[in-house]
Amino acid sequence: FLNKFFNRRLHSVLQDADTTIIFQPLWLKTVDINDTKLKNVVYFKTDDYVSIAANPKQMSVLESQLIKRANYVCVTAASLLETCDNYHFLPNCIPKALVLQRDDELCFMGHDNGLLNACFIGAIWDDKVDVDMLMDFISTSKGIKFHIAGKIYSKKFKNFIKSCDSTRLTFYGVLPFESAQKLAKQCDIGLMPFLVNKYTDGMFSMKFFEYLAGGTPILVTNLKMLADLHQFSDWYLVCSHF
Fold first, then answer.
1. Taking Cα atoms as reference points, which of 81, 121, 149, 114 lies closest to residue 218?
2. Neighbour order of strands in the sheet with 218-220
3. How far apart are CA 203 and CA 67, in angstroms?
4. Residues linked to residue 120 through DSSP beta bridges, in sequence order
């Protein structure tokens, strides 16, 4: 925001563009949304940003300005949809090629000592993931080996992983996308232990389709996004507590 050289270059690019897609209201700190030289402006809203903002009032004001100016507002969760002409529901998806690769690798990692393999792939942070429930599930499930991959922001979960027996839990760190997908394909269960709150009410998790692309059934908390996914109900089990 403070880099004047970057800002000048940015404005030059925007004025030459036929369409400007803005994913986050905080860009309005840098972009003059009322610049008459801007052509089509699309606000692509993938989250309820106000619910997790450090300054909710400021975020709300910026988002209102963006919505008022945007030619199109595209949301990825039906709960974020408003009854306005310029709102469009575009749920998250994955490349078809990823699904087509599903049967290429059926080399499961096997069930050591009769254990099922369960994975969580993605960032773990306290406002989104029910960390306490996940830790309890790992601690009390004797018939499952857990595979965790992704960035961990939760200090509580970082400490928990350090204390876990490596024969029961493997932490892979951040994996390249293809490696993460391979891990999901090799597991019996994909985990989505999310909190149910204002933020997750407006979430449409890519993780859902990434698991399904590998033929991995899902254990999930009761998220609003599931209301639009009845056609996949044979592939997921909703639990209030794992």
1. 121
2. 169-171, 144-149, 116-121, 189-192, 218-220, 236-238
3. 19
4. 148
**Residue 51 tokens, joined:** 């619910």
Distance CA 201, CA 219 (A): 17
Q: Which of 36, 76, 29 is nearest to 53 (CA)?
A: 29
Q: How many residues does the chain have?
A: 242
What is the tens place of the pLDDT at every residue in 158-198? Answer: 999 999 988 899 999 999 988 998 999 999 999 999 999 99
Contact present, 145 and 169 (Cβ < 8 Å): yes
Residue identified by tokens 């998806």 is: 93
**Full strand arrangement of the beta sheet holding 19-22:** 19-22, 40-45, 72-75, 87-89
For residue range 4-16, list pLDDT tens digits in order: 788 788 888 888 8
Candidates 240, 190, 239; CA nearest to 214 is 190
125: left (phi over 0), alpha (psi -120 to 50) or beta: beta
What are φ and ψ of residue 42, in 5° steps? -115, 125
Coil, helix or strand at residue 9: helix
